[in-house]
User: Which sequence fits this backbone?
């Protein structure tokens, strides 16, 4: 229904977003942004661990038969890349049929909102064929 008021026509239909609608939209965007801020570092850490394992696999100086040498190389690379959560008990080194399999299995948890946590469980491995 349209009403004539002087020089312009006023419509009963609303145009645009209300303040409450805008606040709800901003709240949803804020939750998605907070989630991204909390999740991205977890996956960046996992990417770093993958690159450390690949570097250990490609390093010809490491004695693949020595578990201590492999762990020492992993520990140093993790320290340089500032990954502090990985401990010796997260790393499994198995020698079988002339190949060494190195596996890092860990969980990463980060605070999310209040008492809630966000995280993931990861397992990365490489085979050293020497």
Assistant:
């Amino acid at each position: 229904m349209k009403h004539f008021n002087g020089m312009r026509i006023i419509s009963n239909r609303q145009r645009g977003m209300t303040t409450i609608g805008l606040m709800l939209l901003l709240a949803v965007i804020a939750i998605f942004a907070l989630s991204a801020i909390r999740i991205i570092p977890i996956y960046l850490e996992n990417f770093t661990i993958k690159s450390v394992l690949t570097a250990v696999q490609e390093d010809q100086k490491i004695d693949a038969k020595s578990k201590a040498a492999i762990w020492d190389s992993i520990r140093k690379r993790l320290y340089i890349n500032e990954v502090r959560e990985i401990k010796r008990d997260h790393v499994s080194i198995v020698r079988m049929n002339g190949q060494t399999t190195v596996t890092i299995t860990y969980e990463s948890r980060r605070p999310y909102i209040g008492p809630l946590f966000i995280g993931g469980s990861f397992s990365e491995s490489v085979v050293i064929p020497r």
Notes: The longest helix spans residues 19-58. The two ends are 83 Å apart (CA to CA).
